[in-house]
Amino acid sequence: MRKCKFCGKETGIFLREHRLALCEDCYPGWIEKQVDRTIKKFNMLNKDDRLLVAVSGGKDSLSLWQILKKLGYNVSGLYIDLGIKHNNYSELSKEKVINFSKKIDSSFYIISLKDEGLDSIDRISKIYRKTCSACGAIKRYYMNKISVKEGFNVIATGHNMDDEVTTLFGNLIQWDESYLDRQFPVMPSGDGFAKKVKPLVFISEKQSAMYALTTGIDYIMDECPYSKHATSISYKENLNMLESKHPGILRFFLNNFFNSKSKKGLQIEGSKLEIKECKICGAPTYLDICKVCKIKENINR
Ligand code: AMP
Ligand code: FES
Ligand code: ZN
């Protein structure tokens, strides 16, 4: 049995990529410190920011909510009820969010696709083959809408390192320069879009699950039934294999990518397209009618 680096207690928790053994009492504080470092390194947040954290009911976003609260940020949650009936997914995840908000004594907002005239992701999936990408546009739309309406100046999401590295790998394979240009843990505000941050970019999926476990976070274990297509699952599996042979390699890959962009100042670039107001809802968009109003039109026709 290894011994915790901080208190010497015997422990089974060993972070190979950091060659670090920590007991379950010292582990949460270590993770919180890592997140704090990421926040400072990328200048993500200030203590006077009003922060909206998008919470799905999963381990990453609930952990993030708790960590931000513990670090002393002024934070509220936002849950978007997607109306997914499979395994009672949306109802159960909503329940987890509501219970958790009480546990950490934090306020939250709920937006429901049904109330917004968008029916549900189940319905949208019948029309849009790329369900996740339509869903992503809807989520981004409401994160932005609520932040503007309720006076939040920063939106935080729970994307973890595995998500971010998989996205980077996919963008590189496709050599998608516009996505590579925009991939960064902080996106500045502008053109009617709030600032967006991803404070968990250097916390792996395993580390985040362990954080949830060691701090007793009750999260939804099921994945969204529509989530991730075959390609990104296979990227993730192969990247995990690489990580198991070379612990720390994914962190190295991501960190170097971000550092090289920071040096060149590339992350500051927004889109070069002209921003307009959606002719139907007034939201900022690069099109005449925003994606969400288009989806609404298509499902209600
Ligand atoms: P995903 O795209 O499902 O991997 O989720 C990435 C991040 O988006 C999560 O960590 C949350 O911050 C946010 N998110 C996902 N689903 C929801 C939801 N239903 N309501 C609010 N935020 C969400
Ligand atoms: Fe949107 Fe899965 S969470 S399609
Ligand atoms: Zn619109």
Strand order of the largest sheet: 7-6-5-8-10-9
Distance between the termini: 63 Å
Q: Specify the CATH architecture.
A: 3-Layer(aba) Sandwich
* % residues in beta strands: 5-15%
The unique ligands bound to this protein are: adenosine monophosphate, FE2/S2 (inorganic) cluster, zinc ion
SSE map:
Blueprint: E1 2-3, E2 10-11, E3 14-15, E4 20-21, H1 27-41, E5 50-54, H2 59-70, E6 74-81, H3 89-103, E7 108-112, H4 121-127, H5 131-150, E8 154-156, H6 161-173, H7 177-182, E9 186-187, E10 195-197, H8 205-214, H9 230-245, H10 249-264, E11 276-277, E12 284-285, H11 291-300
Parallel strand pairs: 5-6, 5-8, 6-7, 8-10
Antiparallel strand pairs: 1-2, 3-4, 9-10, 11-12
The chain binds adenosine monophosphate, FE2/S2 (inorganic) cluster (FES) and zinc ion (ZN).
Report on this model:
- By secondary structure, this protein is α/β, with parallel strands linked by helices.
- The protein contains eleven helices and twelve strands.
- It has helices spanning 27-41, 59-70, 89-103, 121-127, 131-150, 161-173, 177-182, 205-214, 230-245, 249-264, 291-300, and strands at 2-3, 10-11, 14-15, 20-21, 50-54, 74-81, 108-112, 154-156, 186-187, 195-197, 276-277, 284-285.
- The protein has a six-stranded mixed β-sheet with strand order 7-6-5-8-10-9, sandwiched between helices. The chain has a two-stranded antiparallel ribbon with strand order 1-2. The chain has a two-stranded antiparallel ribbon with strand order 3-4.
- Bound molecules: adenosine monophosphate, FE2/S2 (inorganic) cluster and zinc ion.
